[in-house]
Specification:
This protein has helices spanning 4-34, 41-49, 57-60, 67-83, 87-98, 106-116, 126-138, 143-153, 159-167, 173-185, 189-200, 206-219, 222-232, 253-260, 282-295; strands spanning 239-240, 249-250. A two-stranded antiparallel ribbon has the order 1-2. The chain is globular, with a radius of gyration of 24 Å. A hairpin with an 8-residue loop joins β1 and β2 (249-250). It is mostly helical.
Length: 306
């Protein structure tokens, strides 16, 4: 019969062997990245999820001489947080990512703020929120994207600071627009009115639908969402089909239907894993969605993602 002590020793050996394997695999992974060889970030993420002791090793790769290696280190941290089931895993990842806001590599900053937008609001700790507050004053790289993230996280104590940035005239056109959007997301009525007025002044067409309507969705506010529902019901052929070889005028409702689907509770058309609507006949689906809104005037707006 095997003694308890021997069992403990055997388990320790197995655990140690797995950790050595994981460490070696991580080194091999980044060597492959450095040499532009084929790799799988999904496989590496799954391996690291089973051995949290290696997570801190990823930080050392953030100073690597290879830009590809640096990018992958941040991407892996992001994936670990996004796929992590434990709160401490997600908050750790967010804290590590936010630290890069002063990074001199603009490409990495852009990558990081994009990845942060995929986290839940609850994943931002008090320390992470303080870092975001500092960004408002520092005007870092990709400032417009940071402002949108701040609006999503709902740092309402930064409303006056963001307004001050607008009034001082220090922001570019895109940054100023992002500032108004962030304020709108946080419920600032005057900013929301500014955004909605600017959009409604423009004739509805493909450019407005693809470039500005997503901004109205971002606000998650009832008035701009209802405006989109109104345009959804317009049959005027103000947009064009996506088929470049056979472009023809058609209603903008199809695209608006896709925009609304992820943010309306109990939306009648489901969205697949790729973000597309699960439909075979868009004409029938559009009529179904229009009918649904007519009988669901009290629809609820989902505010759980950026």
């Amino acid at each position: 019969m095997t003694s308890p002590t021997r069992v403990v020793v055997q388990i320790a050996i197995i655990v140690s062997s797995f950790q050595v394997y994981s460490q070696n695999h991580l080194v091999s992974y980044f060597n492959a990245i450095r040499n532009n060889q084929s790799t799988s970030i999904e496989n590496e993420t799954q391996l690291l999820l089973s051995d949290r002791s290696l997570w801190s090793s990823l930080i050392t790769y953030q100073n690597d001489s290879s830009a590809n290696v640096r990018n992958q280190s941040y991407l892996l941290i992001a994936r670990l947080g996004q796929k992590g089931r434990r709160e401490e895993d997600r908050t750790w990842a967010v804290e590590q990512l936010i630290k890069t806001n002063r990074n001199k590599d603009s490409g990495i900053v852009g990558l990081v703020v994009r990845e942060l937008s995929a986290f839940q609001r609850e994943d931002f700790t008090l320390a992470s929120r303080d870092s975001l507050r500092n960004i408002v004053q520092q005007k870092v790289s990709h400032y417009a994207s940071w402002l949108r993230l701040i609006g999503y996280v709902r740092l309402k104590d930064q409303v006056s600071s963001i307004r001050s940035q607008i009034e001082q005239g220090r922001l570019s056109r895109s940054e100023k627009w992002a500032a108004y959007l962030a304020l709108s997301r946080m419920g600032d009525e005057s900013a929301l009115q500014f955004v909605l007025t600017r959009v409604k002044q423009l004739k509805v067409n493909d450019e407005v639908v693809y470039e500005l309507f997503p901004d109205l969705i971002y606000t998650r506010q009832p008035v701009p969402i209802q405006y989109l529902v109104e345009v959804l019901n317009n049959d005027d052929p103000l947009c064009e089909s996506a088929d470049a070889e056979n472009a023809k005028p058609l209603t903008c409702g199809y695209r608006i239907m896709e925009l609304l689907a992820p943010v309306i509770k109990d939306f009648p058309i489901k969205v697949d894993v790729s973000g597309d609507l699960s439909v075979t006949d868009y004409k029938v689906a559009l009529q179904q969605v229009r009918a649904w809104f007519k009988t669901h005037a009290d629809y609820k707006i989902l505010d759980v993602s950026l």
